[in-house]
Structure formats: C-alpha cells, structure tokens
Amino acid sequence: MESKSILITGCSSGIGFHAAAFLKDRGYRVFATARKPEDVETLKAHGFDALQLDVNDSPSIRRALDHILDATDGTLYALFNNAGYLQAGAVEDLSRDAERAQFETNVFGPMELVRLTLPIMRRQGYGRIIQNSSILGVVAMPFYGAYNASKFALEGFSNTLRQELRGTPIHVSILNPGPITTHLRENAFQVYQRTLKHTVASPYQKTYKKMEQTYFAPQERKIAQHPEAVVKKLLHALESPRPRTRYYIGLPAHILAFLKRILPDSALDWVIYKIR
C-alpha cells in the first residue's frame, strides 16, 4: 500500500518536529518544512524529506508544493498547519507592523496553504486539513492580544472551511493545545525584545517585568505537556474515519473551554485574572 503523504509546517522544533518524526516512523511520507535553511539541513540530517517553506512568502509556499506534487504524482493526503509564533504585549503597546506580522504567520500563511491544497484534495477525492490553533483561540488572555486575535481568526476561518466542505471527503480538524513544552516561550521572548522591550512609556512596565521573570523565564511549567500529547490527537484526526472537528489537549485547555461555556464574561475574566 502506498504511504500517505503529509505536509507539515514549522518542523524545526517542538510539535512540528515530534509530529514529523512520529508519522515518519508510522510509515507516512512526511514533507517536513522549516523557514530557515539551516533548520532544513538539520531535518535532512534526521532523514526527513525536508523543504524550505516560509508561510509569509507565497513563492516559497508554491515552490514547496510543486516539489511535493512532483514527488507524489500530484497527490497530498494531509496538510498540518503548525507553523506560528506568539507576539506578547498589551494591545495599546503593539504597533500595526507587529500585529500584521502576527497575522501573516498565524493566519494568512495557513489560509494560502489551504487554498492551494484544496484543489489537490478535491481532485484526488480525499484529504485531511488539521490546524494547530491554541486554547487562546477559544479563551482570550491579557497581554497576548495579537496572538489571541490571530488564533481566533484561524478558528473562524477553519470553522467556515469545515462548513463549506460539508458533504465532501475532505475533513477539517482544529487542535487546541494548552501549555506544551516547546520553544514557543523562548521564541516569544525574542519577539518581545525586538518589539516591546524598549517601550518605556508603557503603563504596563511592571507587568512586562513580571512576565520576564515568570512567563519568559527558562523553566518548565508543571502543567505543560510533552508535544506527544498533541501528536496523539493529530493521529486521530489523520486516521479516524470520523475525525473530530476539535481536539482540546491537556487539562488546562479542557477546563478553560468548559468555563468559557458556562460562565458569563465577567466571571471568566475574574478567573483569568486569578490564574495569570
């Protein structure tokens, strides 16, 4: 039986890398992509069919897809939109450029990949599209406004896509992880240093100092799960004949999603304030 092919974005580390490794071992034809050439070389050294793909760059996306279609005789079983990053900062402190950059990576890149892969899946008569969102695409947290907004946008796009594909053999699933042990925080700190570190006039300077000592600190949270927890749900979304539309991953994600359903906004705001 011919192996199923899957395109995964953001494979340099974390969820993307673990997903690529697990699925490769399971027999999938994994096309593992990364933005930086050096990360692509590292992936190749691990035995992956690795490609450079920058979700912010349309020609890069098209080149990667052309390579994949040449290698698979024009087929692609699944797309896992995993690439993304977190822009921290209060809403009033973020520039339009910072907000735009967040949406380019977390929203517009995945949207373009979906647009380009859907005709392939329609033509072959099957396909899976899995979006790596976040529990912050369901429940907002203060000082992550751009990230919250980008994930809420990805959720809206994915829900609409699923409705439009109703009755077709193409399935759309959303993953909503809570805290996961990845490089998301380290990468977020680098973005924060670039975009907000010197915002001296901000009324939130004390909050930023606290974030530097807690959220951005190089330490593992006890509640954070290994990326394998995400891979387990990804596998179900790929192989179940009836994949779920949404997968909450980890106890914090389940609790917050439940509270979102039962609490009024003011009560949920109080809970968020207490747990931050």
UniProtKB/TrEMBL annotation:
Keywords carried by this UniProt record: Oxidoreductase
One Pfam family in the UniProt entry: adh_short
UniProt GO molecular function: oxidoreductase activity
CDD domains, A to Z: 17beta-HSD-like_SDR_c
Tree of life domain: Bacteria
PROSITE patterns from the UniProt entry: ADH_SHORT
Matches recorded under InterPro entries: NAD(P)-bd_dom_sf, Sc_DH/Rdtase_CS, SDR_fam, SDR_oxidoreductase
Family: Belongs to the short-chain dehydrogenases/reductases (SDR) family.
The protein's name: Oxidoreductase SadH
